[in-house]
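Section 5: illustrative case.
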């Protein structure tokens, strides 16, 4: 069954995938273009060209690190809403998602500061290229290397394009391409947005619309974290003229075009009232007849903690590792976990989810022909078991020191044997609540056998969609296959929930689907016991669940499948 909450575009408007709830309206402005390379010139002073290369790369690195620091502090990296509205669920929108944004920007800064990249550019100068063309050649070479690896790493090649444009602009003395700054509120429109662009949005951006992208893209995840309405995969949006007044509905994906002043005022008024209403929402998750559904947070660090939820359902520990050339020590890990445990009470910790989309230099993993189907998640333990040992030791120590209710789960579990091996090692360290993530169909199909070995399951719908439909989760042309309303995905979720009910053990959803208020009643109707999401999504999910009885949720689930 198609998503009943996604109607066709109204007459004269456009439609895409709504990926971050809320409504906004204002003049649209398209993303600034990338710099054009000038004609090649004869190199008269190779030393000067080399110095220009180094200076450009250092400029890009410094800019990204400064923006990462601003995002971590909640300044300059977030977007506030028109009219100064607060993000639902506590905390302002400028702070929401700062942890994720800072880590993404830091990771990009590491790429720009890569000695191999610099050496390639310097070698290109020695071969006779001027500085801008040497930078272009070096980034192109690294991009081709990533593209040849396939899978998610091939998609990260787009990040190198963004960094190349920034470096070339710096070398030419041009403004870095990226977010416009017109001095008034506007809707940002782009073919696509890089992580650096999305993470560095200013306070005058009231909504995002991209022609490409999917429901689990960086744009979607960071927009949700900031409480910023966003629509992706919106065909034709970049053909509109700058200054066209449009409305954006991040829930339905509708884009209204050519609005009057009165229509703009109405959109803003209704959005403001809705946010004010949700800001007053509180309490545990419940259906209309009192059936409990835990509403939890997805976080990358203590900076992402917000009030209003019932704990943390996904603590992504890999962000502690992302910008490191060496593995974080036991003491560093204990300190990071303690900071979260001391403030959050119940925390579900995901052990290191490395590989594919999160290549970590310190692991030294060799290139793979298809990284998405290779050594990633728990499979890293096959080649480097000491990494998991240290992490489990640190989690256990932090739990003892704080007295927190610490649960631990492994990513990319595929077989009952893997689940059993992980459970033994975790329990040997005193961690009594041990689980497995369901991210591949094999795990969902054997959910009952996994639950014979572990205490709970957490369904990662982002990867489960990718592997179920053989559709890359970042591919702009396959967004419809990654829609969480796809019946095949819902049937796999139902199978896990049925296994949990039979075993008397909890089964939650921690993928981006958990934060969709329209889908939440369906997931509860399937038998899911908890939903973990970005903080900004909690109030609307809470309110939506409160409007349906458990029986009504079950009826919706039956219709959706």
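Designed sequence:
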């Amino acid at each position: 069954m198609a998503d009943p909450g996604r109607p066709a575009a109204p007459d004269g408007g456009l439609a895409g995938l709504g990926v971050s709830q809320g409504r906004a309206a204002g003049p649209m402005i398209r993303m600034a273009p990338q710099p054009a390379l000038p004609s090649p010139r004869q190199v008269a002073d190779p030393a000067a060209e080399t110095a220009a290369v180094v200076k450009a790369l250092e400029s890009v690195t410094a800019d990204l690190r400064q923006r990462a620091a601003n995002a971590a502090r909640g300044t300059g990296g977030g977007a506030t809403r028109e009219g100064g509205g607060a993000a639902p669920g506590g905390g302002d929108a400028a702070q929401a998602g700062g942890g994720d944004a800072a880590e993404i920007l830091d990771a990009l800064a590491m790429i720009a500061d890569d000695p191999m990249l610099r050496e390639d550019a310097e070698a290109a100068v020695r071969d006779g290229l001027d500085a801008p063309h040497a930078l272009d050649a070096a980034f192109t070479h690294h991009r081709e290397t990533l593209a040849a690896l396939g899978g998610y790493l091939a998609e990260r090649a787009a990040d190198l394009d963004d960094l190349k444009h920034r470096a070339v602009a710096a070398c030419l003395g041009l403004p870095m391409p990226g977010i416009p700054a017109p001095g008034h509120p506007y809707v940002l429109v782009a073919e696509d947005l890089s992580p650096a662009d999305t993470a560095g949005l200013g306070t005058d951006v009231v909504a995002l619309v991209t022609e490409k992208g999917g429901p689990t893209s960086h744009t979607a995840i960071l927009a949700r974290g900031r409480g910023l309405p966003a629509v992706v995969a919106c065909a034709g949006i970049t053909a509109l003229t700058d200054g066209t007044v449009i409305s954006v509905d991040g829930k339905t994906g509708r884009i209204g075009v050519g609005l009057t002043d009165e229509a703009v005022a109405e959109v803003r008024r209704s959005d403001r009232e809705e946010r004010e209403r949700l800001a007053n929402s509180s309490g545990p998750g419940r259906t209309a007849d009192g059936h409990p559904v835990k509403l939890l947070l997805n976080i990358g660090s203590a900076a992402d903690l917000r009030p209003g939820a019932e704990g943390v359902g996904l603590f992504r520990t890999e962000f502690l590792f992302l910008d490191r050339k060496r593995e974080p020590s036991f003491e560093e890990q204990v300190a990071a976990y303690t900071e979260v445990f001391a403030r959050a009470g119940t925390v579900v910790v995901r052990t290191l989810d490395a590989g594919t989309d999160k290549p970590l230099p310190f692991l030294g993993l060799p290139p793979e022909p298809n990284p998405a189907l290779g050594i990633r998640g728990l499979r890293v333990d096959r080649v480097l078991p000491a990494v998991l040992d240290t992490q489990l030791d640190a989690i256990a120590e932090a739990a003892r020191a704080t007295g927190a209710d610490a649960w631990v789960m492994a990513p990319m579990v595929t077989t009952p044997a893997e689940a059993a091996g992980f459970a033994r090692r975790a329990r040997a360290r005193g961690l009594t609540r041990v689980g497995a993530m369901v991210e591949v169909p094999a795990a969902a199909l054997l959910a009952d056998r996994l639950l014979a070995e572990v205490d709970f399951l957490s369904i990662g719908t982002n990867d489960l969609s990718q592997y179920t439909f053989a559709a890359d989760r970042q591919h702009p042309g396959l967004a419809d296959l990654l829609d969480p309303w796809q019946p095949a995905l819902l049937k796999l979720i139902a199978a896990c929930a049925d296994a949990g009910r039979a075993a008397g053990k909890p089964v939650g959803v921690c993928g981006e689907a958990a934060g969709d208020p329209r889908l939440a009643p369906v997931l509860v109707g399937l038998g899911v016991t908890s939903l973990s999401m970005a903080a900004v999504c909690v109030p609307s999910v809470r309110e939506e669940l409160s409007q349906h009885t458990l029986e009504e949720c079950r009826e919706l689930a039956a219709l959706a499948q």
